[in-house]
Please model this.
Amino acid sequence: MASIHIGANPGDIAETILLPGDPMRAKFVAENLLDDAVCFNKVRGMLGYTGYYNGKRVSIMGSGMGMGSVGIYVNELVNDFGVKQLIRVGTCGAIREEIKVGQVILAMSASGDADANMLYFEGMHYAATADYDLLVQADEAAKRLNIETLKGTIFSTNTFYDASENRWDKWEKHGVLGVEMESQILFTLAKRLNVKALAILTVSDNVKTGEASDSQEREQKYMDMMRIGFELG
Ligand code: HPA
Model:
């Protein structure tokens, strides 16, 4: 039976799923990297596909932007469709000068401002952490594919536009590599639901220097992170 936000049938979704924020990216990747891709969801335009990568059955679906959206899909993918490994594949803004646009980051952990975590943990702070096995697998896959990666901690925010000055300084001081909008809730829910999660991110812009990627570079680099993601599981 379909879930509230995913119009698929049981068995339509593979145990390993890649989650880009953008559903059109899910479509593009499914059409270009997967064999025999079949669309399993169109509800709210959040396109999802299942196909084969080097003979292995995998899925890819948009997650939407922000932790409210991701939280809905993660809950339903795990509880209603039996998904076991969720890999975010998305972009982030680097908050350190030395990090270049196009760099791939394997996120070990995510701080953040998820309202859901603040409420659930009653003001205390949960250390949202990626699954270690997936992290190691991704590191090894990247080396095999000759893709350089940074490993470290990131920040997930629900606020893309924010008027405060020097917003990221204290996070930079504490070793954070970049900012995005999804991983903190993904990692938290994965632990709660007893499944595995990882985030593989490509730097789309540098918040400090103002550097941003051009579209051709973006296309190539985004495919690099998808290839790492499809190697996992
Ligand atoms: N902020 C939040 N999310 C992002 C950014 C950013 O600067 N760049 C890419 N994703």
In short: Residues 109 and 153 are 5 Å apart (CA to CA). The mean pLDDT is 96. The helical segments are 23-33, 67-81, 115-120, 132-144, 169-173, 183-192, 215-230. The chain has seven helices and ten strands.
